[in-house]
Write a structure and sequence with these properties.
By secondary structure, the protein is mostly helical. The protein folds into three domains: about 20-90, no CATH class; about 95-140, Arc Repressor Mutant, subunit A (Orthogonal Bundle), CATH 1.10.10; about 140-203. About 65% of the residues lie in helices and about 0% in strands. The protein has ten helices and no strands. Helix 4 (about 95-110) crosses helix 6 (about 125-135). It is elongated, with a radius of gyration of 24 Å.
């Protein structure tokens, strides 16, 4: 026997699925474990501060439920706040950069302003910050609608002949459900393939 204390911390998986170990009590080990887990997540995914904080608090709650740690609500919030602050200072968390990246990716896919704004809100991005990111991107809503049509093969990129009124209404409804205005949806689905490609700058 070496006499070294073994609190089982190094044997704890991020996803508790094994037998309950001895509850770790060393605060430094707890912070480091959470730090490694958060860093590993941000190496693979981008996140807003609010979303990252929620993920880390959920992880702590799962560890506590499994008996890996003993935390009070305040303690968990404080630990996550410390980690979020540290990662913000390191540049690993940047809500403005996160919003800009999300907007650019969504616009390339043909996502409407409304749907982007709702998506950023769901990720915890401040409304004014989301609005600024969308405006700074500068993609015209018509361009976004055309990109969506091209990706979904509707409107000017539909296969076959132009459908009847009911068919056109279904295409317009698809665009409206994606957050595009009804008048814009109608204008887009009535474009010819040549007109649409010219607007997109496709030769």
């Amino acid at each position: 026997m070496t006499g070294k204390r073994d609190d089982g911390w190094d044997r704890i998986a991020d996803t508790p699925d094994g037998p309950v170990r001895v509850t770790p009590t060393d605060p430094k080990k707890l912070r480091e474990k959470l730090r490694r887990s958060g860093f590993a997540y941000l190496q693979r995914y981008s996140a807003s501060e609010a979303h990252f904080s929620e993920l880390m608090q959920n992880k702590l709650r799962r560890w506590e439920t499994a008996g890996y740690v003993a935390l009070g609500e305040t303690r968990a919030v404080d630990l996550v706040a410390e980690l979020t602050h540290e990662f913000r200072e390191l540049g690993l968390l940047d809500d403005a950069g996160f919003a800009a990246s999300r907007v650019a990716s969504a616009r390339r896919k043909g996502t409407s302003r409304l749907k982007i704004a709702l998506g950023l809100r769901a990720k915890g991005v401040d409304g004014d910050l989301a609005k600024a990111a969308i405006e700074e991107d500068g993609t015209d809503e018509t361009m976004a609608a055309l990109r969506f049509c091209r990706r979904r093969r509707i409107g000017p990129w539909r296969r076959g002949e132009r459908p009847d009124r009911d068919g056109l209404n279904r295409e317009m409804a698809t665009l409206v459900r994606q957050g595009f205005a009804g008048q814009l949806a109608r204008a887009v689905v009535l474009l010819s393939p040549e007109e649409a490609e010219e607007k997109l700058g496709v030769s």
